[in-house]
Amino acid sequence: MEAPVNIGISEGDRKSIVEGLSRLLADTYTLYLKTHNFHWNVTGPMFQSLHTLFETQYTELALAVDAIAERIRTLGYPAPGSYSEYAELSSIAETRGVPEATDMIRLLVEANEAVVRTARAAFPNAEKANDESTVDLLVERMSIHEKAAWMLRSML
User: Fold this and answer.
1) Residue 111, CA distances (Å) to 26, 31, 61, 150 in order
2) N or C: which end of the chain has fewer CB within 10 A?
């Protein structure tokens, strides 16, 4: 049995924050998988630049899922970690098959923007509870995904 969490945030507030972070984790992991898939399967005249960009992005996402999951654990809850949980929690649809390169870019723009919306939706509960650590994580994630969407959108 774990010791109780006593970090100045009530149980109810921690639970509501974790619900938002769990959705963010699911979206981030789904985006990670989609980006990694596209890295493996991209073809065409933009192959080299997209292959490299997608690798940079999925590498950053791999670190992000760890940070989000560890924040959930810090708040005293188990982090979701199965495909079935992610499918239930994520706002990002799976992409089956191999889209054309420009469709990959468009799909990743949409998915990065979805992660921003999910992070933004989690923000009020963290802010209300004065959970500056989660607020900081959410602001960082929003900034990273807004920039990723802009960079990808610039290629369309």
Assistant:
1) 12, 6, 12, 12
2) N
> In whole angstroms, what separates CA 37 from the centre of its chain?
16
Report which of 100, 15, 123, 113 is spatially closest to residue 50, judged by C-alpha positions: 100
SS3 75: coil
Q: Which fold has domain 11-153?
A: Ferritin (1.20.1260)
pLDDT tens, the chain, 156 aa long:
678 898 999 999 999 999 999 999 999 999 999 999 999 999 999 999 999 999 999 999 999 999 999 999 999 999 999 999 999 999 999 999 999 999 999 999 999 999 999 999 999 999 999 999 999 999 999 999 999 999 999 999
**To which residue do tokens 């708040």 refer?**
75
DSSP of 118-145? HHHHHHHHHHHTT-HHHHHHHHHHHHHH
Every domain of the chain and the residues it spans: 11-153
Residue type, 91: S
What gap in Å lies between CA 68 and CA 142, rounded to an integer? 13
